[in-house]
Amino acid sequence: MEKVYSHNNKDVFTNPKSKIVNQQWVRLNVGGTYFLTTKTTLARDPNSFLFRLIQKDSDLKSDKDETGAYLIDRDPNYFSPILNYLRHGKLIINNGLAEEGVLEEAEFYNIAELINLIKEKICDRDNKAPKDSQKHVYRVLQCHEDELTQMVSTLSDGWKFEQLVNIGSQYNYGTEEHAEFLCVVSREYGARENSKVEHTDKAKVLQQKGSRM
User: What pLDDT digit, counting tens, does each position of 170-198 carry?
Assistant: First the structure.
């Protein structure tokens, strides 16, 4: 007995040698696993490999096995999300399957909308770094009271003000004394970011002020 994936996505067991009388139904033999679906499902994308494959005057050459199933030499595990997308238009990837693997199959079968969906999913995944991969970088910048406003206005690129410490008057400017401060700022980095971050001009201003320490 062979396991066949039916059109309604329920597993059924049938004799692989039995012939499908209804011409609407199509049997696919993908890497040794049988999938049962309809021409309507495969017609969701008329430019896809699968739609072209089932045409009577198809320009694709594909052998059939003794049951009349189209032989496709691809991984059946990664074919399931491809076929399910054609059925209901949603991208559902089972646990244990890599998005890159599904993308490879979508590109092979030339399903444009599905390719875009998977690429967006991969992009979203890569942009969401796990919480435990986040780290904070702290900097202590020294400035006098006249520079505080400028210091705050130059914070950008994710830098946050953390603490201001008054360290007293250490310098005399003419006849007046100006209080000196230590300004503590921080920024959060993900594990995927390069440790050598390219700073913008505003961030470079912070570095220059910090060099006075």
Answer: 555 555 566 787 888 888 776 445 444 44
Q: Which residues of 81-110 are buried (b: 16+ CB within 10 A; e: fewer)?
A: bbbbbbbeeebebeeeeebeebbebbeebe
What does the block give as tokens for 73? 């030499």
**3-class secondary-structure state, position 161:** strand
Specify whether the backbone of 107 is left (phi greater than 0), alpha (psi in -120 to 50) or beta.
Answer: alpha
Q: Are strands 33-38 and 2-5 parallel, antiparallel or unpaired?
A: parallel
Question: Global pTM?
Answer: 0.53
CA distance 92 to 178: 64
Of 115, 117, 158, give the one whose Cα is nearest residue 139: 158
Q: What is the average pLDDT value for the chain, to the nearest integer?
A: 77
Instruction: Say what the pLDDT of residue 7 is.
Output: 44
The pLDDT of residue 11 is 42
Alpha helices (H) in the chain, listed in sequence order: 39-42, 49-53, 76-88, 99-109, 112-127, 148-153, 201-210
DSSP state of 133: G
| Six token digits for residue 190 | 């993900």
Output the six-digit token pair for 192.
């995927």
| Chain CA centroid to CA 13, Å | 36
Identify the three-state secondary structure at position 116.
Answer: helix
